[in-house]
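Chapter review: from sequence to fold.
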Amino acid sequence: MKIVIAGAGAMGSRFGVMLHQAGNEVLFVDGWESHVQAVNEQGLHVNDNGEEKIFHIPAVLQSKVKEDTQADLIILFTKAMQLDQMLQDIQSLIHSDTKILCLLNGIGHEEIIEKYVAPTHILLGNTMWTAGMNGPGKVTLFGNGTVALKNLAPEGVEDAKEVVDVLNSSGLNATYSENILFAIYKKACVNGTMNGLCTILDSNMADFGETTTAHEIVEAIVTEFSLVAKNENVELNVKEIVDYIEMNCYNRDTIGLHHPSMHQDLILNNRLTEIDYINGAVVRKGKKYGVPTPYCAFLTSLIHCKEQILKAH
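The token string follows.
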């Protein structure tokens, strides 16, 4: 299958490598020129759970996508605020049968995707795989993970199940989920706690989890997510979600020593964050539904303060 990874950062690189190893024809598309150049000239350098590997997968700047290139599947891994521009730049890759799988962090991205792709070819999903960016052309892969996805329109069932098969043949542990909004909100709860908090505190997840106030803060944020989700007919059990975060994210033997992607963006690479599409999205939805979201609002404001102090771009 011809697969385009639109957004070849840490997670995009991880998926691209695994799909490439399974024999798919993979193309990385990204807006970071130094990264694209490094991948093309030196290969993608990967630390895969401690084992050093190099993969030669073609990469292209999104502003220089060739019109004669088309894709069977495009997996979206951009930052949320970059999604609209990415879809504009890669329109020539999209033909009548191209499937689009959105695996972005956050909530509500289908509203942007529908401007460029028919709903029948849009797949929504989330992933619990993890990865880290170490500089242009260099990534680190941590542990194992899963992917859940579903078609946006009822007519897209077969497309969704075909993509599940492709991902599974690459070892990505995919499932077809009838309740994808639940999965997306569950992942958003992980991002809505670990990303912002570890960024503000300049901490990995395990160190944060060992603090005496971690449980109280995480529970408060997840409660706000659950109250908003309930207005969209998604039932989140706060205790179960908090238990899930504490059992998985704080484990030093798996991903606990990992710094979340928002920390990588802002603290390591001085890049603007996705906070407005995670906690900020909950704040906007909370105003819409009349649900107070003070923790999410405060955390969103703190991240914006940090962005301005560091002059992130």
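Two observations follow directly from the output. Residues 131 and 141 are 5 Å apart (CA to CA). The mean pLDDT is 95.
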